[in-house]
Each structure stands twice: as structure tokens, then as C-alpha cells.
Amino acid sequence: MAETVVQPSRSRDLDKLLLRPGNIIGNNFDPGQELRDDLAEYVKVLVVGAGGLGCELLKDLALSGFKNLEVIDMDTIEVTNLNRQFLFRFEDVGKPKAEVAAKRVMERIRGVNIKPHYCRIEEKDIDFYSDFSIIVLGLDSIEARSYINAVACSFLEYDSDDKPRDETIKPLVDGGTEGFKGHARVIIPGVTPCFECTIWLFPPQVKFPLCTLAETPRTAAHCIEYAHLIKWDEVHSGKTFDPDDPEHMKWIYNEAVKRAELFGIPGVTYSLTQGVVKNIIPAIASTNAIVSAACALEALKITTGCSKTLSNYLTYNGAEGLHTKVTEFVRDKDCLVCGPGVLIELETSVTLQKFIDLLEKHPDLLLSKASVTHQGSSLYMQAPPVLEEMTRSNLNLPLFDLMGKTSKGTIHVTGTTSKNDTKTSVLRKLRVFFKGVDGVTDMDMAGGA
Amino acid sequence: MIRLFKVKEKQRELAESANGGAPIKKQSAGELRLHKDISELNLPKSCIISFPNGKDDLMNFEVSIRPDEGYYLGGNFSFSFQVSPIYPHEAPKVKCKTKLYHPNIDLEGNVCLNILREDWKPVLNINTIIYGLYHLFTEPNYEDPLNHDAAAVLRDNPKMFEANVRRAMAGGYVGQTFFTRCM
């Protein structure tokens, strides 16, 4: 294996990981030059975000033997990014981050191909995401993480024993930083907890009472939020505030200053205004570098198996001294996003009404008064009356038709279960299979159209 | 996993033309939880919910409240709800669409209700918020003012406050401010 003379790659350190056998390795680790070549040829990585973490990630991944990278980011470069988003120069201000970042890394690292996407993550369809071997996140919002997590989990399929099918697993590596603190985590949908399993990890957002802002401001942040949440609407009726418009931000700042003067409160600055309105915590370049390095290494470990992966959540704190810790979080077995759901097999003729009756008798569910949704459309709602009325006519239709005549699908139901005379309300995920329609669905649809 | 990607790549080349996997509309976790909230709504007759975008957009809806007691008896007040995909991590954004004379609701429709901001918790739900809003009409309070003038009148002269509320609801001026009829 490793004793044969191999051509030294530009990254000797990588070769030490990929060309030699080891002890603490992942499943199916098969060291050798082929592995290194396959990494370059077959692995396609999507980096989400080309900001502070994204710049580091692209550089780290490109230097770790990944050759096919794509990057998606909707932002353009601002002058305040330049201190840490090291791929950008002063003359790049105003240009799309994804495009400039991709270009700069390709200029510096031979043989790497990076395709930029200057758009919102929601603009890409599911096929776009399905194409990648692994997705690495360098994001700053819960919304975006939750979205990508849902996308990755939507590929996941379970077999009839509720075991995840390997070929449907889309691994995620998520990095995040806030000032001197950061985290890196590995999400293997179906195996380790997904983002939604542990959403409770996020502390609640700090929101000031509106009446405090209006009546008794005590801090600079109160004055800024007053201008942002109350004064803006009062003056610009109907016009929505755009935090990315410098004119708008300047207006908020000026109003906040006036308010602060009125109440004798010090400390309103333009950068604090931006910070409060956009919820920004000053970014530290070294935190990004450390978290990104951890993420890139995990991506390499997941794809090549050269070492066991992080299980599954690393926190880093460099505020006072240095502290890192790995915590193994556990999955929420009933997670609506990554969980298997309850498997139900049905005849195509079963109507929605009959299906709802069935749920009441199903031994794993015992769900009465079910409301049913399928991919964002309400099939039947028990309440409120206005929705009950709008969905009532679906009750007599076959569920198969309502679910778009495909052989399988996921639906969600809410209702009540009774155990020992106590009723609890539940929300459950169901995997519905229809008997005898596999493979012929497309033809049927074409014939009927 | 690399072997898996290799196999997949081969399969993809073969299957490329056969069928490009069906695009799936994903439902956010927030949407699912909201669906549960909505299906379990238990509202008094005085509160009516409606869905301007139809049955498949539950994330944006309206609630109209017709208080059956107190200063605001007989009025009809409409609120818009905007629910985020990360609900219930984040509270819904609620605005009052009816211009009204109220100590805790300003003329722009901002509402000062603790559970909408500083006291929001993921265990609360849409039902709780609607009851909270209803409560603002039966028990307006001058201690958390958003409309400073209205709060001062309520505190110092409840009789006059009552008259002002009546005038505003019937359509007319209170001080310099004009209110459209909402009865």
C-alpha cells in the first residue's frame, strides 16, 4: 500500500492522511493514491456563504485536496469586510462575494475549479443541492441554516426497518462564529442530530419591549431600536426599511442620535447602529480561521474516511484564554425534519377521510381528529372553521391523487392521542407508500395529461 | 463515503436523461409547527381568523377582534400576523391594521404586548397571542404606553378616555388625529 513510491503532491501533509493506513479511521478507509485522485475527481463540495468563514473555507478546502468546489452567496463586498475577508481587495467593493472569492482562490491554487453562484440559497432548486457530495456552511443566520438543513434532510430515505439508506445521506458541516466564540459541527442526516433536533441550543433573541423604546429609553441600543422600529414607520409610511441600504442606515443613525441627545444617553455611533439593527457581533479573523480549519478537516474526514469524524459538536471560546469542547448531542427520534416518520402503506383508492379514520386505529399513532398537510399544502384542517370549510371537499378524494400521484411521499399530521385518559396534542411525520405504483407513475401521468 | 460518490456519479451519468428528480417544495419546521397551532386554535366568538392568501399559506394571516366588553365594545380591529420560517424560535410579527386610539398600540399599528417581544417563548402559541391581544382591549394599561397621550388620559381621566375611544371608533378627531370609523 503506502510503501510504493508515490508522486509527492503539493500537499505532503494531506498525503500523510490519505496514503497511509491508520488506526482511528472511518468506515471503508482505503488509503492510497487512488483515494487522493478520487477526492479530486469525484467529490463535489458546496460552500454556502462567501463571507468571513466562506473565504477561509474555500481556501482551506482547496488546499486540502478538493478540486471541485462551488460557492453560493447573495452579498456584495463592503469596505468593512476587507479586514478579515482576505480574498477581497479595495477595488472589489460592490462586486459579488462569491464571484471574487472563487476567482481569487483559483488564481492562487492550481487545478482547483470553483463555480460561483451569486444568488439567494432559496433560488436554487433541489437538483442543484442534490449534486454535491457534501455541503459546508459558513453562515450567520438561523434561517439560512435551517433552510439548508431541511434541503439536506429532504434527500434522506429510510428502509423498512427505519435505518437511513447510505446513498441518500447528504452530510453537512456547519461552522459559525460570533466574536471570539465559534462552533463546528458535523450533521450526518439520519445518523447524527440535524439542525432542527437541537434548535433549542440557540438562546432566545434579546428584544426590548416597544414601550420601553417609546417611553423610557436607557441605553444607546434603545435609541437605535426606537428609530428603527417606531420612527421609521412613522415617517416613511408603507416604505420598508432595507438594512443593506446605506441611506436608510444613515437615517436611522441620525434619528437615534437625536433621541439619545433628548434623553442624555451617550454612545450612539454609526457602527453600533449597524450592529444593533442587523444584529451584528464584531467578527474576529482568527476565530473564523480556527473554525474554518476544523470544518475543512471534518469535510475531508467525512469524504475520505481518513479519520473518525467529530461527534458531533465542537465549541471554541477564545475570549479569555482558550477553551474548546466537543459535545455529542443526540438525535430527536421524532424530529420532523430528519426523523424517519411512521411508515404507512396504502391502497391508491384510500380517500383522505378513510386515511384520517385509519390514523385513529394505527397502533403507533392512535391519532384522533387529524389535520393533514403535504408539502406546504393543507389537505384537511380540523380548525379553524374557515380552513375546515376550505379543505372539506378533499375528504372524499383519494389521498393518492392529493399527493400528486407519486408512489411515495411524506405528510405531516397533527391531532390528539390519548394515553391513560390524558389527551396530548401531537405533530407527526408519516412516510406514505402506495401499493403497486412503483415505476409506472410517470407513464400514468403522461397518459392522463 | 468516497466510494459512494463514485458510484453515484456513474449512476447519474446513466440516469441523466431518464428523469431529472422531481423538485420538492419543502416545508420549514416553522410551517409545520404553525400548522399545529392553527389546527388547534380555540378562539372565542369575538376573534375571527382569516387567510387572505388561501389555505396553503398559513404563514400570513389576519385576525379581527370585536371586543364584547370594555371601552372598545362594538369596535372591529384587524391584526396582521407574519410568521417566520424559524417559528417558534422567533415570535410572529404582529401589526394592528386598524388605526385606533389605544395606550398600548401606536398610530402606526405597533403593539406593545410583552409576549410578542421580550417575553416570547417557544412554548407559547398563536392562541396565546390572540388572547393576549384581546386582553389589550378589555384591560388597556397606561403603564406600558406606546401612545403617550392616550395613556395619560386613561390614567388621569378615565371618563374622558372613554369618550375619546368612542369618538375615534365612530370616526372623527381626537386632538389632532383623525380616526376612520371601525364599528
Automatic annotation (TrEMBL), chain A:
<dbReference type="InterPro" id="IPR030468">
    <property type="entry name" value="Uba3_N"/>
</dbReference>
<keyword id="KW-0436">Ligase</keyword>
<dbReference type="InterPro" id="IPR045886">
    <property type="entry name" value="ThiF/MoeB/HesA"/>
</dbReference>
<dbReference type="Pfam" id="PF00899">
    <property type="entry name" value="ThiF"/>
</dbReference>
<keyword id="KW-0547">Nucleotide-binding</keyword>
<dbReference type="GO" id="GO:0005634">
    <property type="term" value="C:nucleus"/>
</dbReference>
<comment type="pathway">
    <text>Protein modification; protein neddylation.</text>
</comment>
<dbReference type="InterPro" id="IPR023318">
    <property type="entry name" value="Ub_act_enz_dom_a_sf"/>
</dbReference>
<keyword id="KW-0067">ATP-binding</keyword>
<feature type="domain" description="E2 binding">
    <location>
        <begin position="344"/>
        <end position="435"/>
    </location>
</feature>
<dbReference type="InterPro" id="IPR000594">
    <property type="entry name" value="ThiF_NAD_FAD-bd"/>
</dbReference>
<dbReference type="GO" id="GO:0019781">
    <property type="term" value="F:NEDD8 activating enzyme activity"/>
</dbReference>
<keyword id="KW-0833">Ubl conjugation pathway</keyword>
<dbReference type="GO" id="GO:0005524">
    <property type="term" value="F:ATP binding"/>
</dbReference>
<dbReference type="InterPro" id="IPR033127">
    <property type="entry name" value="UBQ-activ_enz_E1_Cys_AS"/>
</dbReference>
<dbReference type="InterPro" id="IPR035985">
    <property type="entry name" value="Ubiquitin-activating_enz"/>
</dbReference>
<feature type="active site" description="Glycyl thioester intermediate">
    <location>
        <position position="211"/>
    </location>
</feature>
<dbReference type="Pfam" id="PF08825">
    <property type="entry name" value="E2_bind"/>
</dbReference>
<dbReference type="InterPro" id="IPR014929">
    <property type="entry name" value="E2-binding"/>
</dbReference>
<dbReference type="GO" id="GO:0005737">
    <property type="term" value="C:cytoplasm"/>
</dbReference>
<protein>
    <recommendedName>
        <fullName>NEDD8-activating enzyme E1 catalytic subunit</fullName>
        <ecNumber>6.2.1.64</ecNumber>
    </recommendedName>
</protein>
<dbReference type="GO" id="GO:0045116">
    <property type="term" value="P:protein neddylation"/>
</dbReference>
From TrEMBL, chain B:
<comment type="function">
    <text>Accepts the ubiquitin-like protein NEDD8/RUB1 from the ECR1-AXR1 E1 complex and catalyzes its covalent attachment to other proteins.</text>
</comment>
<keyword id="KW-0547">Nucleotide-binding</keyword>
<dbReference type="InterPro" id="IPR023313">
    <property type="entry name" value="UBQ-conjugating_AS"/>
</dbReference>
<keyword id="KW-0808">Transferase</keyword>
<keyword id="KW-0833">Ubl conjugation pathway</keyword>
<dbReference type="InterPro" id="IPR000608">
    <property type="entry name" value="UBC"/>
</dbReference>
<feature type="active site" description="Glycyl thioester intermediate">
    <location>
        <position position="112"/>
    </location>
</feature>
<comment type="similarity">
    <text>Belongs to the ubiquitin-conjugating enzyme family.</text>
</comment>
<dbReference type="InterPro" id="IPR016135">
    <property type="entry name" value="UBQ-conjugating_enzyme/RWD"/>
</dbReference>
<dbReference type="GO" id="GO:0019788">
    <property type="term" value="F:NEDD8 transferase activity"/>
</dbReference>
<comment type="pathway">
    <text>Protein modification; protein neddylation.</text>
</comment>
<dbReference type="InterPro" id="IPR050113">
    <property type="entry name" value="Ub_conjugating_enzyme"/>
</dbReference>
<dbReference type="Pfam" id="PF00179">
    <property type="entry name" value="UQ_con"/>
</dbReference>
<protein>
    <recommendedName>
        <fullName>UBC core domain-containing protein</fullName>
    </recommendedName>
</protein>
<dbReference type="GO" id="GO:0005524">
    <property type="term" value="F:ATP binding"/>
</dbReference>
<feature type="domain" description="UBC core">
    <location>
        <begin position="29"/>
        <end position="174"/>
    </location>
</feature>
<keyword id="KW-0067">ATP-binding</keyword>
